[in-house]
Specification:
alpha+beta; Arc Repressor Mutant, subunit A; 3 strands; HTH_ArsR_DNA-bd_dom; DNA-binding; HTH_MetalResp_TranReg; transcription; transcription regulation
Length: about 120
C-alpha cells in the first residue's frame, strides 16, 4: 500500500504546495479575478460571467474557501463571497520567497544538464 509522504516535508513547503494546487485550475483563477474586480460577489453572479455550471462554480468556491483564499457569508438563500486578502497575500509572499530561494541556484553550476 502506498503511503502519503506529504507529512515528511516542512510545513511551509506543504502550505506553498496547497496554495499552488488551489491556483492550478483556470476556473479558480478566473473566480479569484471576478471576486477581485467586484470586491464582493454572489455565487450566481459568477455563473453569469464565467462559462461554468452553477455546481462547478460552487465546487471551486468550496475549494477556495477551504484553502483559505476566499471567505463566504450566508445571505438568505445565497452566499456572498470575497477574497481573503490577508491569506492570499501571505501565501503569495511564501511562494515568492520559495521561488527566490530556488532561483539562487540558477547558473551556479557550470553547464546545464538539460542543454
Amino acid at each position: 500500500m502506498a503511503q502519503n509522504k506529504k507529512a515528511e516535508f516542512p510545513e511551509k513547503v506543504q502550505r506553498i504546495a496547497s496554495f499552488t494546487k488551489l491556483l492550478s485550475h483556470p476556473a479558480r483563477l478566473a473566480i479569484l479575478e471576478v471576486l477581485a474586480k467586484r470586491q464582493t460577489c454572489i455565487c450566481g453572479e459568477i455563473v453569469e460571467i464565467l462559462p461554468l455550471a452553477q455546481s462547478t462554480v460552487s465546487q471551486h468556491l468550496k475549494e477556495l474557501k477551504e484553502g483559505g483564499l476566499v471567505k463566504g457569508e450566508v445571505d438568505g438563500t445565497s452566499t456572498c463571497y470575497c477574497i481573503h486578502w490577508e491569506n492570499l497575500s501571505k501565501a503569495y509572499e511564501e511562494f515568492s520567497e520559495h521561488i527566490t530561494l530556488i532561483k539562487q541556484y540558477q547558473n551556479k553550476k557550470e553547464g546545464n544538464c538539460c542543454e
